[in-house]
UniProtKB/TrEMBL annotation:
<dbReference type="Pfam" id="PF00271">
    <property type="entry name" value="Helicase_C"/>
</dbReference>
<keyword id="KW-0347">Helicase</keyword>
<keyword id="KW-0238">DNA-binding</keyword>
<feature type="domain" description="Helicase ATP-binding">
    <location>
        <begin position="112"/>
        <end position="264"/>
    </location>
</feature>
<keyword id="KW-0547">Nucleotide-binding</keyword>
<dbReference type="InterPro" id="IPR027417">
    <property type="entry name" value="P-loop_NTPase"/>
</dbReference>
<dbReference type="InterPro" id="IPR006935">
    <property type="entry name" value="Helicase/UvrB_N"/>
</dbReference>
<dbReference type="InterPro" id="IPR001650">
    <property type="entry name" value="Helicase_C-like"/>
</dbReference>
<keyword id="KW-0067">ATP-binding</keyword>
<dbReference type="GO" id="GO:0004386">
    <property type="term" value="F:helicase activity"/>
</dbReference>
<dbReference type="Pfam" id="PF04851">
    <property type="entry name" value="ResIII"/>
</dbReference>
<protein>
    <submittedName>
        <fullName>DEAD/DEAH box helicase family protein</fullName>
    </submittedName>
</protein>
<keyword id="KW-0378">Hydrolase</keyword>
<feature type="domain" description="Helicase C-terminal">
    <location>
        <begin position="297"/>
        <end position="436"/>
    </location>
</feature>
<dbReference type="InterPro" id="IPR014001">
    <property type="entry name" value="Helicase_ATP-bd"/>
</dbReference>
Length: 436
């Protein structure tokens, strides 16, 4: 028989994709078979992604919303696999020699209290506050109770960076990493790291769901993904949201006391967030190949062998800028990455390993990545692609190390607008709150 770990744990699987003997065995273990669709208020919905189905002008009707996870015909059957699974007990779950700050310890207490009370919780923490380290004790408590936890993010890069850190501190626990680009097939693990899209494949599977970067694209405003989060947790389970820039909807739930909250205004090393230096460019960034004011800054960084990140609002602008960099600074080593770059993960690793001096990027790297001793520069900061949230997150890439807390952040723009003003004022406000 096939490896059953490929199916267990609240997985939603089309029965037509299962061998008869596997289907029969999973049903005997408690798996339930349901139609691929259900009706509500005379409307037809997909059982996997919970989205309303629209009529297609073809003979075979299927759900278009979750087609990237496999075609789901409306007249098919789904198997929802068993979630009651026993995990081996361990003498040591968490193996970590680090220490938490007083603020982090307070946050841990509040997280564990939410877990005990089965209450959803928001951790509102500035970039670099040490959110990941704060969830270590929560994960440990989940494991001790023989339960299962999933840590999710909208961004593949975040999941990939977090995976080895979780593996290292929970060496005796099964940890899985699953995303659309993953080469490994699904296996049942007690800790699962995955992109939020993967949760569409699960129903009542997890006792605790940790959702990192809840305000990030493509999760923000995506009904299907938010429904997937709620569907994937058990009825008795909780959701923990992590964010440096939480959406208004979550803050409203906090005010209504529907969820509890932890606030951390200070980074783990105790130093303030780098506040951006703002520069008005009277001409476009590509004026005279590269704007002379900008060129002066780049020359200074290159001569001093200072590593830096350049953020662009659009891919074509980044590509044109990269060509000029090669012509003007042939000795400069750099990579450029975007959401359309198949080699993005490898290029990011090159920069992390200090094999190149600079990285050119779009907002794809606005969050979820950590580099030390870098200068962060945003070009055309007035562009619509750079929202207030994006600018705050980008600025948060700097100053993350205790030995490089004073990294510089620079915003270059052709006109000063509200998103720049709000981003700078919120960073200043968070620094003021940290002093109290």
């Amino acid at each position: 028989m096939d490896n059953l770990d490929e199916y267990l744990g609240g997985r939603i699987i089309l029965t037509a994709d299962l061998k008869p003997e596997v289907l029969q065995y999973l049903q005997s273990c408690g798996g339930k078979t349901v139609p691929t669709t259900f009706k509500k208020n005379d409307k037809l919905f997909c059982r996997r992604c919970l989205m309303k189905l629209d009529y297609l002008p073809i003979k075979l009707q299927y759900c278009r919303h979750c087609i990237n996870l496999g075609k789901l015909p409306i007249d098919g059957q789904l198997l929802i696999t068993p979630t009651t699974i026993g995990y081996p007990k361990q003498s040591d779950y968490l193996v970590w020699s680090g220490t938490l700050t007083a603020n982090q310890k307070r946050g841990v207490r509040e997280l564990l209290m939410a877990f005990e009370k089965h209450r959803d919780h928001l951790v509102w923490a500035v970039t670099g506050a040490g959110k990941t380290e704060m969830i270590f004790p929560l994960i440990e408590q989940v494991l001790k109770q023989g339960q299962r936890i999933a840590i999710c993010s909208p961004r593949v890069d975040v999941c990939i960076e977090l995976f080895p850190r979780i593996q290292k501190v929970f060496p005796n626990t099964t940890v899985g990493l699953f995303h659309g680009k993953s080469e490994e097939s699904y296996q049942l693990t007690q800790i699962m790291l995955a992109t939020v899209h993967q949760l569409i494949r699960f129903e009542e599977a997890f006792d605790v769901l940790v959702v990192d970067e809840v305000d990030s694209y493509p999760l923000a405003g995506n009904m299907m993904l938010h429904q997937a989060i709620n569907k994937a947790k058990k009825k008795s389970g909780i959701i923990v949201y992590l964010s440096a820039t939480p959406p208004k909807e979550l803050l409203t739930q906090v005010r209504q006391q529907k969820i509890s909250i932890t606030r951390l205004y200070q980074r783990f090393h105790g130093h303030p967030l780098p506040e951006p230096h703002c520069h008005l460019l009277l001409k476009p960034i590509m004026f005279n190949r590269i704007n002379p004011r900008l060129r002066m800054k780049l020359q200074h960084l290159i001569q001093n062998k200072q590593r830096f990140m350049l953020f662009f609002p659009q891919i074509p602008t980044m590509k044109s800028f990269a060509k000029q960099l090669i012509k003007l600074y042939p000795s400069l080593t750099f990579v450029d990455v975007s959401s359309k770059d198949d080699e993005r993960l490898e290029k990011v690793q090159q920069f992390r390993d200090q094999r190149v001096q600079a990285i050119l990027t779009t907002t794809i790297l606005e969050r979820g990545v950590t580099f030390k001793k870098i200068t962060v520069i945003v070009l055309d900061a007035q562009a619509k692609e750079f929202s207030k949230t994006a600018l705050i997150q980008i600025a948060g890439r700097a100053g993350r190390g205790s030995d490089s807390y004073d990294d510089e952040v620079h915003f270059y723009y052709q006109y000063y607008n509200q998103q720049i003003r709000l981003a700078c004022s919120e960073i200043a406000y968070l620094n003021q709150q940290a002093k109290k």
